UniProtKB/TrEMBL annotation, chain B:
InterPro entries: MetI-like, MetI-like_sf
Keywords: Cell membrane, Membrane, Transmembrane, Transmembrane helix, Transport
Protein name: ABC transporter permease subunit
Cited CDD domains: TM_PBP2
Subcellular location, record wording: Cell membrane
All copies of domain ABC transmembrane type-1, residue ranges: 84-274
Record-stated family: Belongs to the binding-protein-dependent transport system permease family.
One Pfam family of this chain: BPD_transp_1
Transmembrane segments: 7-25, 92-111, 123-145, 151-171, 207-230, 250-272
PANTHER family named in the record: ABC TRANSPORTER PERMEASE PROTEIN HI_0355-RELATED, ALKANE SULFONATE ABC TRANSPORTER-RELATED, MEMBRANE SUBUNIT
CC annotations in GO: plasma membrane
Amino acid sequence: MSVIEASDLGLTFQTNDGPVHALSKIGLTVEKGDFVSFIGPSGCGKTTFLRCIAALETPTEGTLTVNGMTADEARRNRAYGYVFQAAGLYPWRTIAGNVRLPLEIMGYSKAEMSERVKRVLDLVDLAGFEKKYPWQLSGGMQQRASIARALAFDADILLMDEPFGALDEIVRDHLNEQLLKLWDRTEKTIAFVTHSIPEAVYLSTRIVVMSPRPGRITDVIESPLPKERPLDIRDSTEFLEVAHRVREGLRAGHAYDE
Amino acid sequence: MRNVFPILTVVAAIVLLWYAGAVWMNSAWTLDRADGPLSFGEVVRDTMSQDRPRLPAPHQIGAELYDTVIDKAVTSKRSLVFHGWVTLRSTLTGFALGTIMGILMAVAVVYSRTASMTLMPWAIISQTIPIVAIAPMIIVLLASIGVEGRAVPKAIISAYLCYFPVLVGMVKGLRSPDAMQLDLMRTYNASASQAFWKLRLPSSVPYLFTSLKVGIAAALVGTIVGELPTGAIRGLGARILIGDQFGNPIMIWSALIAAAVLAGVLVSLVAVMQGVAMKRMGFAR
């Protein structure tokens, strides 16, 4: 069953310098349980496309359905959890309080809330940090808390916008590994925006390569890698081949001598 | 404790300058009354102990403060504690009134474009009108609609000065959540009131307390100004006015010092509340 379906999707921003084609003729189907990465240089519209799926932006052309509904209906049905580039935890709430935030808004019962908070904090390895405030945690732990926040309610889609972009490589490797385990356990559909080739190849079942002006899809790569992926799979020939194809795709779609 | 030494140094410098100023400014009156030539020591001694000095020496004000704060019964019309209490009551009423007004107006300004375009210019204009010009009118108007006594008009004048910093601070505070935090609320399909109570209001708390510190000092100034042109006979403002009418600078200065101490205490109290609130909200590190 396809979870996200976009066809001929376009988004044009009207600016003072004339129209900007952020997205053009985007066609993509994401199946249930997929881990799809969007990769491309800045300005290629990968984040804009993710925001369209989340109904934070409205496309100007084409059709887009999420769970068989319009994106905005899906948003109102709380179909997805969104993880932003920055953790964006509320400084006045503890870690547990931050994870509880969507549950409070969605009106879960008290017992249900504490049960879910405990479960998702376990899931992201933050058990024992319930009463800490965000500033008492490292950047990587804060980002894990924000993932827990997006997992706390029953959305089967997880939209992630460069969630590990601001972290150093060691932490990022660790979180990538954890994210794969989490994806395996929760069976969510994940759409993941990144500008790191190894990250995209390591995580995804499908890699969508995008290019700018106008933002469009230049290649969709089905990953031949097995679902079980230890970190050292990144030295395997298959991994390097996929990475190479992604790099080629990026190069083809982007003229560097512009 | 490291701060004590520099603070005391500045205080000592001010006191020294003050004494020098007292000698300089009061010596004219000493020399006017002198029968013959006076030595420098005699001039200085006289300038320190005049009944109506142009600039009272610090110890004269200290003695007056001791007399009117410690020695007099607190119910006496000559006790500064009594007058301070009258002023404090109006200040706190005005402060509460002004804070509530400021917050409500800020909410209106943040949520309604119309309110933002209509309220803000008037709020700014309201602060450019001298309060001494408005104060008597407020009293006359309130009297004509049957509000007796001084307490209510004083509190309103006080609120008039106090609401503005609260309004400005709260508008900034309520608008402080960034686009990402507002987007997050949208992804949860949160209602406008949920976004207000769970995001905008808590975000504004640090701004609110900063404004309250300015606001409470403004409320005190408002009350004292409200006591000045209105023929009040109670309150620190009234003490200043009476001291002026009876040519008693020591009385004026001791009322001024009392007002300054009161302001300092009030601002410090708000600062302590801020500290506690910030700590409880997890902002403090």
